[in-house]
Automatic annotation (TrEMBL):
Name assigned to this protein: Ubiquinone biosynthesis monooxygenase COQ6, mitochondrial
Function: FAD-dependent monooxygenase required for two non-consecutive steps during ubiquinone biosynthesis. Required for the C5-ring hydroxylation during ubiquinone biosynthesis by catalyzing the hydroxylation of 4-hydroxy-3-(all-trans-polyprenyl)benzoic acid to 3,4-dihydroxy-5-(all-trans-polyprenyl)benzoic acid. Also acts downstream of coq4, for the C1-hydroxylation during ubiquinone biosynthesis by catalyzing the hydroxylation of 2-methoxy-6-(all-trans-polyprenyl)phenol to 2-methoxy-6-(all-trans-polyprenyl)benzene-1,4-diol.
Encoding gene, per UniProt annotation: coq6
Subunit field text: Component of a multi-subunit COQ enzyme complex.
PANTHER family given in the database record: UBIQUINONE BIOSYNTHESIS MONOOXYGENASE COQ6, MITOCHONDRIAL
PROSITE patterns to which the protein is assigned, alphabetical: UBIH
Domain called FAD-binding: residue spans: 32-267, 326-406
Length: 458
């Protein structure tokens, strides 16, 4: 009796699904093996990476993007939105052939980094020997999408549809069922595997109904393109932790750097309304102006430096001075809200989340987009192996392997970044002293610094 009831319920669900899909189309909708939703940096790279995977060469892939086709034209003016690409992302861009387009146009290398506490003035630095020559490559976001797009347009197994508005997704209830994607214009597509790369406000994630842990930081990120006083070799990334949030300048070329300044919303709004000369003064104050600290913190850090000198270990006395800012590119100043977000599950039957749709972090460590590109590399490998082994795309066991591998990396990284934000977002003297001594200790031990860099490169 119970078995018959289960069969009746299953037949009814399938009938309801069929009836539902018939309201959208009267003929069989176009079918793709993979549909990717979201054509930003991560979504476009995912489409190109899967399209170039030899094991997926006979699989049809569709990329759906709500915006207009990307039409980037090189100008002397740099974009104010840039990304610091780590070693793994650089290798991925090389693998899909996009890096050569970036290198032909422009990018910059970070060979040294200096990070210091504005209250205690304790610092940690990484030089080119400790970071294996290049710690990161600074690339404009629009340029990266353009470079990947040049490779993507040559792929016969990938189709791109722009200016698409999605009405809803119908996700499979059983392994044998397809995903249905219904557009506002009335079109419907089906696929074996739906990949959500549609950002922090992901429609795909909402359709999955997974729990999403999120909160807003009481901060906004102020960005701008800065002009420097001297046209020296610009290969150092500078970051100073202020009580209101970190300020960082990243090299673009010898006389230009990119600003990323996390501060309170009121301060951010006030900054972007300032005249250029006043804005420049505020940046230089944030980078250079000494802050008062307690005598206990000062004496304790000095004593710890002497202890390090006794053991002939590097101390934080060798701090370099950041470049002086003399101007800002007109129109390059902007601000955006900062937040944290993490989906408790990245996958369900026939669907997976990638990039910001699955996780969102504070930009203080420059890891946000790199986590997304790490998702791309892992998913590409797993899907290729699944097809090579004769399994169909979208099987939950393969998707769960992707989820496990990425959550093992992403979640600890995100917790560490959030912890750093909280650690440096206070002026409470015992916490300032604790973090300052920790920074001195880390700076003194090269193996520990290399471990940090290796983790950031993954």
């Amino acid at each position: 009796m119970a078995k018959n009831s289960i069969l009746l319920l299953r037949n009814y669900m399938q009938y309801a699904l069929n009836l539902h899909t018939k309201t959208y189309c009267t003929k069989t909708p176009p079918h793709y093996d993979i549909i990717i939703v979201g054509g930003g940096m991560v979504g476009t790279t995912l489409a190109c990476t899967l399209g170039k995977n030899s094991k997926l060469s006979d699989h049809r892939i569709l990329l759906l993007e709500s915006g207009t086709p990307h039409n980037w034209i090189k100008t002397e003016k740099y974009s104010n939105r840039v990304s610091a690409l780590n070693l793994n992302t650089y290798n991925l861009m090389n693998k899909i052939g996009a890096w050569k387009h970036i290198a032909e146009i422009r990018c910059s290398s970070v060979k040294n980094m200096q990070i210091w506490d504005a209250i205690s003035d304790v610092m940690i630095s990484f030089n080119h020997e400790e970071v294996s020559n290049v710690a990161a490559h600074i690339v404009e976001n629009d340029l990266l999408i353009y470079a990947v797009g040049k490779e993507l347009c040559c792929l016969k197994n990938v189709e791109v549809k722009n200016q698409v508005k999605i009405k809803e997704f119908v996700l499979p209830q059983q392994p044998s069922q397809n995903v249905f994607v219904h557009l506002n214009e009335g079109e419907t597509f089906t696929c074996n595997l739906l990949l959500g790369c549609d950002g922090a406000q992901s429609q795909v994630r909402n359709a999955m109904g997974v729990n999403y842990i999120s909160w807003k930081y009481d901060q906004m990120g102020v960005v701008a393109t800065l002009k420097l006083s001297e046209a020296n070799e610009n290969v150092t990334a500078w970051q100073r932790f202020l009580p209101t949030g970190p300020i960082a300048i990243l090299p673009l070329k010898n006389n230009l750097s990119s600003l990323v300044w996390a501060t309170t919303p009121d301060h951010a709004r006030a900054l972007i309304e300032l005249k250029e000369v006043d804005f420049v003064d505020k940046i230089n104050d944030a980078l250079w102006k000494p802050l008062d600290n307690s005598s206990i913190i000062q004496e304790s850090t000095k004593a710890f430096n002497k202890l390090l000198e006794f053991f002939e270990l590097p101390t934080s006395n060798e701090k370099q001075l950041p470049p002086k800012v003399i101007g800002v590119d007109p129109g390059s100043t902007a601000a955006f809200p900062l937040g944290f977000g993490h989906a408790t599950n990245y996958v369900k039957q026939g669907v997976a989340l990638v990039g910001d749709a699955a996780h969102r972090v504070h930009p203080l460590a420059g890891q946000g987009v790199n986590l997304g590109f790490g998702d791309v590399s892992t998913l590409n490998k797993i899907l290729g192996e699944a097809v090579y082994s004769g399994r169909s795309l979208g099987q939950i066991t393969d998707l769960q392997e992707y989820e496990t591998l990425r959550q093992r990396h992403n979640f600890p990284t995100m917790v560490a970044i959030d912890g750093l934000h909280k650690l440096y977002n206070t002026e409470f003297p015992p916490i300032v002293l604790l973090r300052s001594l920790g920074l001195q200790f880390t700076h003194a031990l090269n193996p520990l610094k290399k471990a940090i860099i290796n983790q950031a490169a993954r």
